[in-house]
Design goal:
Layout lengths: L5 H12 L5 E3 L12 H13 L3 E3 L4 E4 L3 E4 L4 E3 L14 H5 L4 E2 L1 E3 L19 E5 L4 E3 L4 H15 L11 E6 L2 E7 L6 E8 L3 E7 L5 E7 L5 H10 L10
Parallel strand pairs: 1-2, 7-8
Antiparallel strand pairs: 3-4, 4-5, 6-7, 8-9, 10-11, 11-14, 12-13, 13-14
The structure holds flavin-adenine dinucleotide (FAD).
């Protein structure tokens, strides 16, 4: 398994759970490093190893074919199957050729309309859309956003005039652990954490310099997404007492 993000971590867990021997190779220090706080990523990486996954962190891939991978440190890993879960880079040639502004994704306004154009809209994975509650643009590759944005932008194409203010959520499962998350869930942000059971059940708030929440990770904690949305929209500083 090349990659330790959503695809790599979920596939490694499900393949291992069905009896396959999996080796993960990725350049970050831990599983789901870009999403999870460092300490939680470290815990999850150890947990994957306990489940039998051979996790090669801080390791790159210099070449691969269907049956083997050569790593940056010179190891050759033989495999029956090689899976690459490397994320995507937007292919922007079509939008560029059409003269449509691209900033990571197709730049749209709150209605999903391409700025300066009456009849061109974009929604879902390709769209870079404003999130007023967080004061910046996002491009999101998740199901909840794709469905909700698609529905609202479609209505706007028919003249509904409905701004998209939805804060999309996403989820992931890793063996019997899992999470739901909403907002800007970026491990480069500072966090405020409240753990009922350390690394097993708790809430992580990703905060700005004033401790205002920008995103939430609910780790083995369910049905709290709406509460997370409320706290992000409220924009008030939080502490761990409030994370319930
Ligand atoms: C392997 C994988 C696993 C995922 N797992 C999850 C998950 O567990 N949870 C989650 O929340 N999200 C997950 N996602 C993300 C989720 O699938 C996407 O966010 C969602 O599908 C985006 O919907 P969309 O309609 O914007 O784009 P897509 O579903 O990608 O649809 C785009 C469509 O446009 C077509 N197209 C592309 N270029 C052109 C062109 N030039 N002309 C005409 N048609 C074109 C494509 O062929 C495709 O039919 C996963 C994605 C992948 C790839």
């Amino acid at each position: 398994m090349i990659g330790g993000g959503f695809i790599g971590s979920e596939l490694a867990a499900s393949l291992t759970a069905t009896g396959r021997k999996v080796t993960m190779v990725f350049p970050e220090p831990g599983v789901a490093w870009r999403v999870l706080p460092a300490s939680l990523s470290g815990f999850v990486t150890d947990y994957y190893r306990e489940q039998g996954v051979d996790v090669l962190t801080e390791e790159t891939v210099v070449s691969a074919d269907a049956r083997s991978v050569t790593t940056g440190s010179g190891r050759t890993l033989e495999a029956d199957v090689v899976v690459a879960g490397l994320g995507i880079e937007p292919s922007t040639e079509l939008a560029d050729a059409a003269g449509i502004a691209v900033d990571n994704g197709i730049v749209v306004d709150e209605l999903g309309q391409v700025e300066g154009s009456q009849d061109v809209f974009a929604a879902g994975d390709v769209a870079s859309f404003p999130v007023p509650a967080l004061g910046r643009r996002f491009r999101v590759e998740h199901e909840d956003h794709a469905k909700t944005h698609g529905k609202i932008v479609g209505a706007n194409m028919a003249g509904a005039g409905m701004p998209y203010h939805h804060l999309p959520f996403f989820y992931s499962d890793m063996f019997e652990r899992g999470y739901e998350a909403v907002g800007e869930v970026d491990s480069r942000l500072a966090t405020v954490e409240r753990w009922e059971v350390p690394n097993r059940e708790g809430v992580v708030a990703y905060v700005d310099e004033s401790r205002r929440p920008r995103g939430f990770l609910f780790w083995n904690v369910w049905d709290k997404i709406e509460r997370g949305r409320e706290l992000i929209r409220a924009g008030e500083p939080i502490d761990s007492v409030l994370l319930v």
